Amino acid sequence: MGSVSSRPENGKLFMDFRYRGKRCREQTSLEDTRENRKRVQKLLDRIEAEITLGTFDYAKHFPHSPRAEQFKAMRLQSQHLDTPLFSEFVEVWFSEMLIQWRKSHSDTVRQTLNGHLLPAFGEKEVGRITKAEILEFRASLAKVTTRSNRKLSPSRINHIMTPLRMILNEAANRYNFSSPYQGIKSLRVPRTDVEPFTLDEVRLIIEKVRPDFRNYYTVRFFTGMRTAEIDGLQWHAVDFERRQVMVRSTIVNGEIQSTKTDGSFRAIEMSQLVFDALKRQQQATGGMKFVFCTRNGSPLSHNNVTKRVWYPLLRHLGLRKRRPYQTRHTAATLWLAAGESPEWIARQMGHSTTEMLFRVYSRYVPNLTRQDGSAFERLLKSNFNDFKPGAE
User: CB-hemisphere CA count at 13 Å for 190?
Assistant: First the structure.
């Protein structure tokens, strides 16, 4: 953000701003008065707008400035810069990044490249893409509608723009030009309020769900596991002796992968309800590889489970439609309601710090005193003491 100041030696106003990564100070002949400051500030605002749009011509505004010649030389150099087409550089960049990405992420990036970035920039030289073109492209994304006839959300647009930023920044480093993405900030994403279930709703769901999924949802609600984590849970990761569920892998698009982050690699303490549910499940699928699976032992398809079990159940019970991921939010809010330590809860959730816990669940945080899971165990016992799932 530029500023307008006056020089102590002569009292004349000057502008202080940044252009192409360099600090620029340009003197005016105007005295430091309130009216003159307004005039200079108005000019500075117009200059910064042009810089953002990529249309700023230094020599046009400051024809006698030494900086004008410097930036003119830089512009001429960039015009003669020999850079590959965006489509060519993308393939090099993508192949080099594959080694550090999970397959599910690389598939997502590939879809973004093919569906959005290559059609827009593929035939342009990577060194000649301007900030104005980037902003125009982002604005066009806001007009795109999905199959469900919805506009792309700010979060989705940001996810599309992220590979573009990475590509252009890497190309700028390799071919020695200023990245046109410089100064472009991500769109503001509205905070999504969590919609956890109450303990009474949880009990109702577990009581009324079809019997072959009762253990599944008991574990989901009281461990906070993500869908890919519970669907990819294997029996060797269930430690009944230590009463822990070891989250070591996930399943995405039918493939076993490592956990999302180092923090996601964790041990979840079993409450008695979870322990009992897994013991019952062991009788049904103990001879299989996956804890929760189809009759032939293959992993569950989360789309099928959601459409054929989860949503029909919520409709039947008259409960508001919510994504299955709300079972994870429910676990967090129940732990908080029980008074468990934020650090303990963060470890159970797979968060590296308590920052997200307080940011997402702040309104559910009471006075926290317990730190070992015992408070949550007492909460469950007081509400589920007479609960016998599957009993007639």
Answer: 4
